[in-house]
């Protein structure tokens, strides 16, 4: 069932449309190719005036099933018969909600809601006519812009009329692109199917049969995809229910499955139950959908009770509406003279005629009935109509009206309410839809209600049909479903077999290739799970009992059906990490070159000449080599690359640190020679001695690398220890001692340079390079101290990435800390690039 809701223009009184139609006839499926007069379902309606009129469309009557369904070929209609008391209760739930809202001073203050309720008789054309009547004002005239020939359109979408449903659970309606104006206060059937699948799996029912309505309601995809096998699927049609019920009963009788899932309307399954009763099939366990799990018509039928005892069902969440029972009991035709539906109900239930009080009423034409005395009353009467102990669908109607009212309240709160009411026809439907999406209210149970897109958050009751001493069935609550969580009290269930044991209905197909048989404990041998083979294992036969492990250099494919060679994995120039590191290395080399050019251009300035400009150029050259040596680590390892990368790394960094060490010694020597008696100190640290020192320090590293690479060099090797689809190709360190000596020597020079620079940091000069060296060496040491544990713990190709990162980080640290301040002065503060400024204290 569905609900339309919109504020329309340009009528003087905007109408908020709330339309309810039968579950089996959702308006989304109606398409027209031309205009035609279908006839009228009748003029009966229920109306209450107000500032804003809420329109409701309910299936209050039904037509006998023998009526032909092709309405376009019928010149006239048979009259509606059979007042549906449940739908009547839904209608009064709407009326009660409107009256309750009008009494609420905090919701829509100063605004009175009214309603207009129509009966569609449970048929497509009449539902459409009534809906168009509420939308456009005339049910008997085709609207040409909606129904123009040659244009198949969904009826309500072109108008952007917000549609709120309290019983339309079709999953298709969740498609926001097709139904952007649709909302509902009942969960989608997708969630119901998942709940039924959860219940079946919880009770170990993996082999079941299914009977389903042959329409949008009978969807079984979610059941089949959740680990439940269906032995058979029997569709039933409303138009051919007698024949379909016999066929379904024969199938159930012959099937091996002992659990039958039924996704159909209660009138359809009743026919199936009656056929099963004729065949004395009483040992099946039925799993019910919400469409029939709470049907009073089935529960009170003695014949049905012989077949359907122990039914487990998913039901719409039961909720209470405070004051609703008193409202229903106070209903009386005398107090509601315009309510033709109430008069019809009154005459039927009390078997009396109201023709003397309402002589012109078509529902009061039963001359054979005695006249009503006026003393008839629903007060104190036990009747299903006034039973509000378990309100389910009626509560959805109640909730839908409140959702509409809160959306309207939110819309009116956006501006001055009184001014807004004077021009209410200016409200657009899409504005109301925006506020519907934001509805967030608290239910009488203290639960939060809101729309998930167009849907309602899933919540169900789990019920069980249990026999009473009178032979009928009663409904017992045994659990609930909230979202994906299922709560079940198995000890409270009365099973169809009459015992305390859960009925067994299990079976499994043979496991396909890529899986293995896993027998379940305490269950028959034929009942098993198909477990996918683990990574690195395969099974290439159907029904394999075990999975075979692949050889060391092979790995299983995605389907676990064959062993394939493991892919080689290394840090390459094509992947994101390799590109990032390459970009950082090349950028560092370019920046170093740019600094070199700046220093070369300003080589005659005091700042460049200070502390031996030759050392600065040599330091820049060594930094460039440091940046470029990191590129050797990227790419597939080979014999030459494994040897060259460590040598290039060790020698480049020793050259760089040696330059810094000598510069630090020169700074100390210059300031020490300024003291009395130390004038000859600088002759031991002239340019020749500086170049010689750098050459000596570097040659020591060259000797260490030569010995290491000649005795036990790194070699490319595949790491087969890590089990996975990829095998890492890396440069294996044959001699950890050699690599440790290379790092240790760099660390020795760095620590010495840091110590000397720290001692020289407070020497009196306006520009003391020792401070820059101190900070740069702190960063350098911090990077390489962190490098050791990261290098040891990194897996596969990330070992190489960690070493490259350490190289780049330390190189950038040296470049920026030492040369960034100098370039700043040279390029942006040339007035400070003077000997006087540099020598100032």
Low-confidence stretches: 1-40, 65-77, 138-152
Principal-axes geometry comes out as elongated
Using DSSP, what is the number of strands?
25
How far do the termini sit from each other?
90 Å
Measured by DSSP, the beta-strand proportion falls in: 5-15%
Membrane topology: Multi-pass membrane protein
InterPro entries: ANF_lig-bd_rcpt (IPR001828), GPCR_3 (IPR000337), GPCR_3_9-Cys_dom (IPR011500), GPCR_3_9-Cys_sf (IPR038550), GPCR_3_C (IPR017978), GPCR_3_Ca_sens_rcpt-rel (IPR000068), GPCR_3_CS (IPR017979), GPCR_3_vmron_rcpt_2 (IPR004073)
Family: Belongs to the G-protein coupled receptor 3 family.
Subcellular location: Cell membrane
Structure overview:
By secondary structure, the chain is of the alpha/beta class. The chain folds into four domains: about 1-10 and about 40-65 and about 80-140 and about 155-185 and about 320-355 and about 385-445, Response regulator (Rossmann fold, 3-Layer(aba) Sandwich), CATH 3.40.50.2300; about 190-320 and about 460-490, 3-Layer(aba) Sandwich (Rossmann fold); about 515-565, Tumor Necrosis Factor Receptor, subunit A, domain 2 (Ribbon), CATH 2.10.50; about 575-715 and about 730-840, Rhopdopsin 7-helix transmembrane proteins (Up-down Bundle), CATH 1.20.1070.10. The protein has 23 helices and 25 strands. The strands form eight sheets. Strands 8-7-9-10-11-14-15-16 form an eight-stranded mixed beta sheet, sandwiched between helices. α6 (about 240-255) crosses α7, α12 (about 395-410) packs across α14 (about 430-435) and α20 (about 735-760) runs antiparallel to α21 (about 770-795). Residues about 1-40, about 65-75 and about 140-150 have low confidence and may be disordered.
């Amino acid at each position: 069932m569905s609900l339309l809701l919109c504020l329309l223009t340009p009528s003087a009184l905007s109408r908020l449309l709330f339309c309810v139609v039968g579950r089996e006839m959702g308006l989304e499926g109606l398409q027209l190719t031309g205009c035609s007069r279908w006839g009228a379902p009748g003029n009966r309606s229920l109306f209450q005036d107000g500032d804003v009129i809420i329109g409701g469309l309910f299936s209050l009557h039904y037509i006998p099933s023998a009526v032909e369904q092709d309405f376009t070929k019928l010149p006239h209609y048979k009259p509606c018969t059979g007042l549906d008391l449940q739908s009547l209760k839904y209608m009064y739930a709407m009326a009660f909600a409107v009256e309750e809202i009008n009494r609420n001073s905090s919701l829509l203050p100063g605004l009175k809601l009214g309603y207009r309720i129509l009966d569609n008789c449970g048929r497509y054309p009449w539902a459409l006519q009534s809906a168009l009547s509420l939308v456009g004002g005339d049910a008997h005239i085709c609207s040409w812009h909606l129904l123009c020939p040659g244009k198949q359109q969904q009826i309500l979408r072109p108008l952007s009329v917000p549609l709120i449903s309290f019983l339309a659970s079709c999953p298709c309606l969740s498609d926001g692109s097709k139904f952007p104006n649709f909302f509902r206060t009942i969960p989608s059937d997708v969630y119901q199917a998942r709940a039924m699948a959860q219940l079946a799996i919880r009770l170990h029912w993996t082999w079941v049969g299914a009977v389903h309505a042959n329409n949008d309601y009978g969807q079984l995809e979610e059941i089949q995809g959740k680990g439940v096998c269906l032995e058979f699927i029997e569709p039933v049609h409303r138009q051919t229910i007698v024949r379909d019920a016999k066929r379904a009963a024969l199938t159930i009788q012959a099937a091996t499955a002992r659990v039958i899932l039924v996704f159909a309307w209660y009138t359809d399954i009743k026919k199936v139950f009656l056929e099963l009763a004729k065949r004395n099939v009483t040992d099946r366990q039925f799993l019910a959908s919400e469409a029939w799990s709470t049907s009073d018509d089935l529960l009170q039928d003695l014949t049905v009770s012989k077949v359907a005892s122990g039914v487990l069902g998913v039901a719409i969440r039961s909720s209470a509406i405070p004051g609703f029972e008193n409202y229903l009991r106070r209903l009386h035709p005398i107090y509601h003279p315009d309510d033709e539906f109430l008069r019809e109900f009154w005459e039927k239930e009390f078997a009396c005629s109201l023709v003397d009080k309402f002589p012109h009423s078509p529902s009061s034409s039963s001359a054979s009935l005695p006249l009503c005395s006026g003393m008839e009353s629903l007060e104190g009467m036990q009747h299903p109509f006034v039973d509000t102990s378990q309100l389910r669908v009626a509560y959805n109607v109640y909730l839908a009206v409140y959702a509409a009212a809160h959306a309207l309240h939110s819309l009116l709160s956006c501006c001055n309410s009184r001014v807004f009411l004077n021009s209410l026809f200016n409200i657009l439907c899409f504005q109301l839809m925006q506020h519907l999406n934001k509805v967030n209210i608290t239910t009488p149970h203290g639960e939060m209600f809101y729309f998930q897109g167009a849907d309602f958050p899933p919540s169900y009751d789990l019920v069980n049909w249990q026999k009473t001493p009178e032979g009928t069935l009663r409904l017992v609550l045994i659990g609930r479903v909230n979202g994906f969580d299922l709560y079940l009290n198995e000890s409270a269930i009365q099973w169809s077999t009459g015992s305390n044991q859960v009925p067994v209905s299990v079976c499994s197909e043979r496991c396909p290739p890529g899986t293995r048989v896993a027998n379940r404990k305490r269950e028959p041998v034929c009942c098993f799970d198909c477990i996918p083979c683990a990574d690195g294992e395969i099974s290439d036969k159907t029904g394999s009992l075990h999975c075979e492990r692949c050889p060391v250099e092979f790995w299983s494919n995605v389907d676990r059906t064959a062993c394939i060679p493991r892919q080689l994995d290394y840090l390459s120039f094509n992947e994101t990490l390799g590109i990032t590191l390459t970009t950082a290395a090349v950028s560092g080399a370019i920046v170093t070159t740019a600094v070199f050019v700046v220093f070369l251009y300003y080589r005659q300035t005091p700042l460049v000449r200070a502390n031996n400009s030759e050392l600065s150029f040599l330091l820049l050259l060594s930094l460039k080599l440091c940046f470029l040596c990191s590129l050797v680590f990227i790419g597939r390892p080979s014999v030459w690359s494994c040897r060259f990368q460590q040598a290039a790394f060790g020698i480049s960094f020793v050259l760089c640190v040696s330059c810094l060490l000598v510069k630090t010694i020169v700074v100390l020597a210059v300031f020490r020679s300024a003291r009395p008696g130390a004038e000859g100190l600088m002759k031991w640290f002239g340019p020749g001695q500086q170049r010689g020192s750098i050459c000596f320090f570097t040659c020591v590293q060259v000797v260490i690398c030569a010995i290491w690479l000649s005795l036990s060099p790194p070699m490319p090797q595949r790491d087969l220890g890590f089990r996975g689809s990829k095998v890492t190709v890396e440069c294996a360190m044959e001699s950890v001692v050699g690599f440790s000596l290379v790092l240790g020597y760099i660390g020795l020079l760095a620590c010495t340079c840091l110590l000397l620079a720290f001692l020289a940091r407070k020497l009196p000069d306006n520009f003391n390079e020792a401070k820059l060296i101190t900070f740069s060496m702190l960063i350098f040491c911090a990077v390489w101290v962190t490098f050791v544990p990261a290098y040891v713990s990194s897996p596969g190709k990330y070992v190489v990435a960690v070493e490259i990162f350490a190289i780049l980080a330390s190189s950038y640290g040296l470049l920026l800390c030492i040369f960034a301040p100098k370039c700043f002065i040279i390029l942006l503060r040339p007035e400070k690039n003077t000997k006087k400024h540099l020598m100032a204290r």
